[in-house]
Every structure is written in structure tokens, then in C-alpha cells.
Amino acid sequence: MDMRQDGFPVTALREIAILQRARHTNIVDLREVLTGTSPNEVVLVMEFLEHDLKTLQENIHDPFAPSEVKTLLKQLTSALSFLHTNSILHRDLKTSNILLSNRGHLKIADFGMARYIPPPQSPLTQLVVTLWYRAPELLLGTENYGTEIDMWSLGCIFAELLLREPILQGKNEVDQLSKIFDLCGLPTDKSWPEFWRLPNAKSLKIPRDAGTKATGQIRTKFPLLDSVGVDLLSSLLSLNPEHRLTAEEVLQHSYFQVFPKPKPMELFPTFPSKAGQEKRRRRSSPNAPKRGDAKAVHDIDFSGIFANREEEQAGAGFQLRVA
């Protein structure tokens, strides 16, 4: 960090404050915040999990079974429900930001783009969420959005768990929109009335009377997915954000009630992890820090740096440990 002009980065303070508040079984646990020999070096210490979903899917021989997909999706949705209930947007959901332990325990990580939901009609940046998981309204330039963008990303992750690869791999924003329309159909006045009011919509040459149903496209793409699964995926990948299910509605969806039921975590398969080898290499390093090197704890007053009272309360108990 370069703190000479602006001090401690406000984005990092926001991430720390949110992680301190987001205590949930399916959200990575922030243990402490450390500095190194220089105050410009700050480390967020998280709990350890063996895998991330992206790397795991690339390395395993067989895809996740339907019951395992349901277990993973339900845990992920549970974490999203907690975040949205507490007015938190993640804004960067993707498989590389989702961790999995060898006990089948899933946790969301990387809250660098997260923020508290502002009051209605407050402008937000649309340059959030990795391109392949970015909702169409963001690609079309909206500055007013909410939890619906996380739910679109959830739909992309659901599809990726089924296919073992990202479903919408656009090369740029225009190509990404093209792939979305190929899968979900073209927007119409009936399916998405607000579409034509979005900043970038006017530059697209789309006939206003054309359109196809998302369900038909998704059913073709996922022939092994049953009808309730198609209904859930179609609802998450709805072009119109107002038609997307909330996290709580997803948890109540019949997809999790029909056979096969979600597999219990204790029966979830385990996978070999390379993390142990990295751990052994670090231990053998002569410069590796020794246990118990933390020497002092300093309380820092963060009053006045947060965007609202909720953020200030979330950061009130922050402590910086100096090693």
C-alpha cells in the first residue's frame, strides 16, 4: 500500500468491516489483521480451506453428482441470503471465489468488491463482477442495482457446476451480451420493459418484437436437468432483474425437495489437495515466521471513514495486530 497521500485504503477498510460483520457458516472467517515489518504491509488472515471450486472442477475426473450440486448450491445460497438480509452485496461471485473444505463445507471468500446496499436510486459503479458472471443490466450500463446481480452470478455458478465450465465465456462486453441473448433470448417490451431505458441499450440493434423463451434454450443446453431444475436456473438467469428469485426464494424452491435430495456434508467426497505440499515448503524456509511473533495489539479509531452508520458500527471493533 502507498499510504502517503490517502492513508489506509477505504476499500480495504470496507472489506474488513464487512468480513467482521458477515459471521456465517458459509462465509470465510476473518481471524485477524496483521502488519509486517513495515506498516505499509497489511495481511488479512483467513481460515484455511483445501480447495476453490474453479480449480477443483478443472482437476477432478468426474463431475459433481446431482445430489452434490444441490448441497453446494444450497450452502452458497444460504450465505447469499445472510448477506442480502444484512444489506450486503458481494458483487464478485465466481467459482474461484468459492472455497470448499475436504468435509464438503462451502464458504464464500474475496469481499474486495463487496459493499453495503445504499438507499434507493443511489448511483453505483457498473464496473463490478467478473465479465463471465456479470448480469445483463450491468453490461447495459445501469447505475441502480441491488441483490439481483448476485443472483445472476449464482445462476451462472449453478450452470457451471452442471457443465464443469463457465456457461457464458464472452471475449468482451458486447460478446458477453451476445452470448447471454443466445441463451436467454432477446428482450422484448413484455419480458423486460425497462430494457430500452438503460444507457447502452440504444446502441444495440435489436428488433423490439423479437424474442425467445429462456426456458427452451436452457432445456436444450441442459438435457439432463429435470423440470424443477430448469425452472430454477431459468428464474436465476432471467434477463429482467425483477423476475429473478431472491436467495430466500431459492432456498424454498422445490428443486431441493425432489429426488435426489442434497447429499449430507459428512458423505461428501474428499479430494487430494496440493496445499499440504506448499505448507511443508513454507515450514522448511529459514525465513518463515515463527509462531507467537505477534507482539502488540493497537486499537484504531475508524470513526468518520465509513459511508453510513451501519458500516461504522461494523468496523467499531477492528483491531490491528502488529507482528
Automatic annotation (TrEMBL):
Keywords for the protein's UniProt record, in alphabetical order: ATP-binding, Kinase, Nucleotide-binding, Serine/threonine-protein kinase, Transferase
One GO-annotated biological process of the protein: regulation of mitotic cell cycle
GO MF terms, alphabetically ordered: ATP binding; cyclin-dependent protein serine/threonine kinase activity
Signal sequence region: none
Chain segments annotated as transmembrane: none
Gene3D superfamilies: Phosphorylase Kinase, domain 1, Transferase(Phosphotransferase) domain 1
SUPFAM superfamilies: Protein kinase-like (PK-like)
Reactions the enzyme catalyzes: L-threonyl-[protein] + ATP = O-phospho-L-threonyl-[protein] + ADP + H(+); L-seryl-[protein] + ATP = O-phospho-L-seryl-[protein] + ADP + H(+)
Top-tier EC class: transferase
InterPro entries for the chain: CDK, Kinase-like_dom_sf, Prot_kinase_dom, Ser/Thr_kinase_AS
GO cellular component: nucleus
Keyword Kinase: yes
A Pfam short name: Pkinase
Superkingdom per UniProt: Eukaryota
EC number: 2.7.11.22
Family: Belongs to the protein kinase superfamily. CMGC Ser/Thr protein kinase family. CDC2/CDKX subfamily.
Protein name (database record): cyclin-dependent kinase
Source organism (scientific name): Massarina eburnea CBS 473.64
Lineage summary: Eukaryota, Fungi, Dikarya, Ascomycota, Pezizomycotina
